[in-house]
Amino acid sequence: QWREIHGVHLLRPLLHRRKDDFRALLAAFPAPYLRDSTPDWSVRGATRAVLDGLGRERRERIIAWLSEYGRLSAEIGAELDNAMAVWVAAHVRNVQLPKAAAGLALDLDALFGLHVGGRLAEVAAVVGAIRDAWNPAVAGSQPSAAAEIPDAVPDPQWRLFERGFFEAAGGLLARRPGHYHTSQKLSVNTRAVRHLYENMQECSKPHFSGGLTQELGYVHVAGPPRRVLVLYDASAFPQASFKDMRNAIVAAAQRALPRLGG
């Protein structure tokens, strides 16, 4: 069968053969890749040993929870994708600032109020059930390459903020070459965004400002009437002193509130 890829004609004569035919052919020879060569000391081998050491009922329970985790993650992931697209379209706006500068206003009340946030807690509950069944089994098999699942307090609002931030601010974030020549990484990492989120949760001031990078700055407006995060690219407006403009940025965010909340 001929196939053209990027203008190059390739001949793949075996493409029409069934996969079962290939397996039957390979099974007739002592091909090592048909045997599981996973070493017992590897993480995969240790994980298998833990599962094999469980009784049938406990093993099937863990496998059932893992299947539920996969199903639920895919379902909620699709719902989260849709919710973020709707939120960005309805609750993220460009705002005009003094000195001919511009920023981006994010309605955080609308973001944190998304229904999908409650569904993220469902995933955390399934992880907790897996952890309760898995950790005692791992503890009984030590020393082992298999690790216990750490206990973590679910924080759906952080997950919403992390996803919403990168969805809304993508156009403001510089992209740099990644580890591979074909990959890219953003100028703002998750740790910096997490630090901003924690400051937002802990700060009691009506508004505060800072920078995620030398270029990307922010002003957080706690409200009332609504909670808003304004982002701006300082490098795009060298004539503006954003630190001195903080009150003006707050006023611009408040003027945008009727449109954001509507």
Major sheet details: 5 strands, antiparallel
Q: Give the strand line-up of the largest sheet.
A: 3-4-9-8-7
Number of strands: 9
DSSP strand content? 15-25%
Q: Taking all residues together, what is the mean pLDDT?
A: 82
Instruction: Provide the succession of SSEs.
Output: EEHHHEEHHHEEHEEEH
Distance between the termini: 57 Å
Radius of gyration: 26 Å
How does this model look, in words?
By secondary structure, the chain is an alpha+beta fold. The protein has one domain (43-142, 154-173, 188-256). It has helices at 19-27, 43-53, 56-91, 108-112, 116-139, 156-169, 190-202, 246-261; strands at 2-5, 8-11, 92-96, 102-107, 175-177, 184-186, 207-211, 216-221, 228-233. The strands form three sheets. A five-stranded antiparallel sheet has the order 3-4-9-8-7, sandwiched between helices. Strands 1-2 form a two-stranded antiparallel ribbon. A hairpin with a 2-residue loop joins strand 1 (2-5) and strand 2 (8-11). The chain starts with a strand and ends with a helix. Mean pLDDT is 82; it is low at 179-184.
Short description:
By secondary structure, this protein is an alpha+beta fold. The protein has 8 helices and 9 strands. α5 crosses α6 (156-169).
Layout of helices and strands, plus pairs?
Blueprint: E1 2-5, E2 8-11, H1 19-27, H2 43-53, H3 56-91, E3 92-96, E4 102-107, H4 108-112, H5 116-139, H6 156-169, E5 175-177, E6 184-186, H7 190-202, E7 207-211, E8 216-221, E9 228-233, H8 246-261
Antiparallel strand pairs: 1-2, 3-4, 4-9, 5-6, 7-8, 8-9
Helix pairs in contact: 3-5, 3-6, 5-6, 6-7
